[in-house]
Each structure stands twice: as structure tokens, then as C-alpha cells.
Protein 1
Amino acid sequence: MKGLTYIYFSATTTTAQCAKAVGKAMGLPVNREINIADNHATELPFFEPDDVAIIASPVYSGRLPEPAVNTIKRLRGKGAYAIAMVVYGNRDYDDALLELMDLLKKSGFNIVGAGAFIGQHSIFPKVGTHRPDKSDLSALSEFGQACRERLDAGYPFKEIEVKGNFPYKNPIDVPLHPKCNSQKCKRCNACADKCPAGAIDRDNPIMTDNSKCISCGRCIYVCTYKARDYSGVKYALIGKVFVSAYSKRKEPEWKIAE
Ligand SMILES: Cc1cc2nc3c(=O)[nH]c(=O)nc-3n(C[C@H](O)[C@H](O)[C@H](O)COP(=O)(O)O)c2cc1C
């Protein structure tokens, strides 16, 4: 094996954290790391049969976020090995892992392992709070080691079956968007620069174009002045129902190709 490439969409860093915990346990030299949330128009790496890629995405409404899909579709696997991961906020991952695996197969990757892991919910942080935690990190590390052992064993990979249905569920548009506090905003444009949907106007970063916003929370995460957040009555009401419905702890699930 030549080396490891990370390709992930991570708006608020939990997906990146999970992918790296797996990669670290695999013990391969890292070639390249791409966060699609930073630059989905970036030049993508070329793969050869001996390369290994960890391809990870958060779950949005039971599916993959659109910018992640658009980038993953542009990859050419050329028989390289892929580890497919989704990270979700303790509600459910529905069809997202199946969707990711289907995209990777179509792109010509050999899938070594596939898993769904839990991170703090980026819209409702009272769900999945502080995850991935110690127990999640040890599951991620176990998954990484198992992927490495399977790669070292080398014989052909059988298809992995994961939960999910095709046609995939229709993703619902999340009716909540981060708002900007104009008193705190210093117009530095970090949010506009980092928004993966181009929803924030550089000339007036106070305003978000909600028709473009994918509610990923990247603008909240990158704002040094804590000027952006979810707020308002609708957010409070939906949050209350959401927290009471989805707080029961879910555990990581993963499979290795036979
Ligand atoms: C728009 C949106 C939709 C989401 N939909 C789901 C979902 O369907 N199921 C779930 O369990 N978590 C859902 N989440 C939570 C994220 O999957 C979770 O917080 C993930 O860890 C975020 O990854 P990141 O920190 O790398 O951005 C959603 C988050 C956002 C922003």
C-alpha cells in the first residue's frame, strides 16, 4: 500500500475527527487531506490500485450533503481501496451509508470497510453532546485496525451490505438557518469565505441567503467573534421536540469486507 488520502466533508469538524481516528489506527503515511466543506471545487487526487482513501461524510436528513455528493462523483477510484464512513448526530443515518457506498462503487473503488459513527449534532448540540467520546474513539480505532488487517490480508473483497433503501429517502430541507448578530459581526468575511454553499454575501455578511444555505453550521464554527448561531422561537420549539425524541444513545456500527 502506498499511502492514505482523506476526503471528507466536515463543516463543524466531527466528521474530520472520526476519519482521522480511523486513519491513525491504520498506521499508513498520509498523502493528502481534503475537506470538501472548505473547497469543493478543489483539484482531486488521482488514484492508483494500491492507494487507500478514507471517504467520510456527515449525514444530513438521512442522506449525504449535496456538495459532498458532487465531489465524490468526480473521484476516479481506478481500483484503489476505500473506507466509507458516515457520521451522524444520534438520530439515524438512514440511507446515507448506502448512498456513499453506491457512489464509491460507481467511481471504481474497492470498499474495504464501511461504518456509521456518532458525532455531536451540529444543529442541536444537546443531542450526541461531546461525541465522539472515549468509547466512540476506541470503536473508531478498532475499525481502523480491522481495515488495516483486512488490507494486509489482501485477497479479493466481497461486497459489504449496509442498512438503507434504494430509492433513497427524499432529503427534507432543514427549516433552520444560522443567524448573524450585527452588533458582534466585524465583517471579516471568514463565514462568507468558508460557506460551502456560497450563501453569505461578502458585501453584506450579516445576511444569509436561506435558499442556498444548507444549515451545515460552518459559519458558526469559523466565526471568531461568536456572531453567528441558531436562535429564535422556531429553533427552540423544534429543538425541544428533537432532544426528547433522539437523546437515547446510539452506538457505532461497522463492517469489514469478507
Ligand atoms: C442540515 C443537517 C442535517 C442533519 N441531519 C441529520 C440526520 O438526518 N441524522 C442525524 O443523526 N444527524 C443529522 N445531522 C447531524 C450531523 O450529521 C452531525 O452533527 C455530524 O456530526 C456533523 O458533522 P461535522 O461536524 O463534520 O459537520 C444533521 C446536521 C445538519 C447540519
Protein 2
Amino acid sequence: MALIHLQGVTRTVELPDGSDLRILRGVDLEIDPGDHISIVGRSGTGKSTMLNIIGLLDLPNEGSYTIKGKDVKTLREGQRSRLRGDTFGFVFQQFNIFNTRTALENVEVPMLYTSGVPFWKRQGLSADMLTRVGLGDRLDSYPTEMSGGEQQRIAIARALVRKPSVILADEPTGALDPETGNSVMTLLETVAAENNAALIVITHDLKVATRAQRVLSLSEGVLHEVADPHTHFTDSHDTAAQDTEVNA
Ligand SMILES: Nc1ncnc2c1ncn2[C@@H]1O[C@H](COP(=O)(O)OP(=O)(O)O)[C@@H](O)[C@H]1O
Ligand SMILES: [Mg+2]
């Protein structure tokens, strides 16, 4: 049984003028523990929408989505948000951490709503995780006092502190210089491998994309396997290729 299985998943939203925008038109995807996949595709093709559905932040209109065989449609909202917290860790391009909280307090956030983790234990787990990402000496620093790479490390520590079985990263290196992005990817891969977690990375960057075992492209609302990522990225019709050239 797959860890994650999407079959024919669609997502349509209604635009202000009353027309329908069909973002996802039938996404099929199977992920097993320990898999590392990249998702590429032009801006606006629905990559974030798909990641939000996978991470239980949004629901499909049609099709089926199961997590370890459990159909997410059958879950009540409370069950769904519990399953989200127990299963997924999120990393975003803009870090999405709180500037008014210290590094340690930021990493504690995902545990604030889980029952049965006492205060001292939360602190210990968070400090251990920050040490793991190389910020053991910055526990009491505020994000504004830290570099972009360090802020993304806080976000990674926060995403991983509950040992998720799936890490969802939406352009995790998009705001970082290539060298820092590289070390952030190495960190994500290392920690994912330690826990046999699946790692799903949306990226515009050929170098980041080709670190994965599989590269998938989202276009026309459907996922396609990319046999040769280098060719895909040099297709002049693809804005991802242009972004890559700008970043090079
Ligand atoms: N809730 C929404 N209402 C209206 N349009 C949306 C909504 N969510 C996403 N979109 C549109 O759907 C398309 C896909 O968005 P997104 O998933 O963010 O794409 P990507 O991450 O690939 O750039 C975009 O055109 C976006 O403007
Ligand atoms: Mg996006």
C-alpha cells in the first residue's frame, strides 16, 4: 500500500466573474516512504494547489486521495487536521516563520496543539532539532537577526520536529543563493533519509530538481514523468527554463 496515492484528482475554483478555473484536471501520484520527487512546471500551473491538497490544507473536487489506504474524504475536519500534523512537515520559499518568536519558540509551534507533550519536553525536542540543523548556538536569536539560510533552517527544524512521514517543500531554495540552497537541500535530504520520510520538492531550479529520484512536471492540470530533466529545462517555451538561466 502506497503512503500517498492520488488518482484522478481535480481541483476547480470559481473566479469572481462566475466562471470556473480548472486548475487540476486529473492528477495521479503514488509516493512510498523514503521517496524523493521533484515537481516542476510553469508558474500558475497549480503546483502549490496540488501540494496543498497533498498536505490536507485543501481538498480535491473529484478523484481519490488516500494516505496509508485511508480515504481523506471520509475524515471529519478535526481528524483531517490531526492527520495533517502527524503526517506532514511544510517548508516554504518565504520561510513563514514568526519574526516575534525566537528560533526555539518557532520550532515549538507545531507542538503547541498536540496534547501530551509537556513544556520542558517541547523545549528539549526543539533545541535538539535546531542543533541538528546547525543552529544549536542560536536558540534565543530572532529571525530578523539571522540570514536567509539560517531562517530556512529554522523553518526546516519546525517542519521536522514532529518527525513527519512526508516533507512538502514549496520552492524551498527560491529565496536563497545557490550555495545556501544547496546546503539546505542536503540538510532536507539527510534528515528525510534518517526517518525514511518521503520528500516532495517543488522547484524552478534544474540543479535542485535533478537531485530527486523522479522529476514530474505539472502542465495542463496533469502530472507527467520527465524522462530527461535537462531537455525539459532547456525548452524555451517553459518559463522555468528562463528562471534557471536568470539564477545561474
Ligand atoms: N482559491 C483560488 N481562487 C482563484 N484562483 C486560484 C485559487 N488558488 C489558485 N488559483 C489560481 O490557480 C492557478 C494555479 O495556482 P498555483 O497552484 O499557486 O500555481 P503554481 O504554484 O504552479 O504557480 C493560478 O492561476 C492561481 O491564480
Ligand atoms: Mg506555487
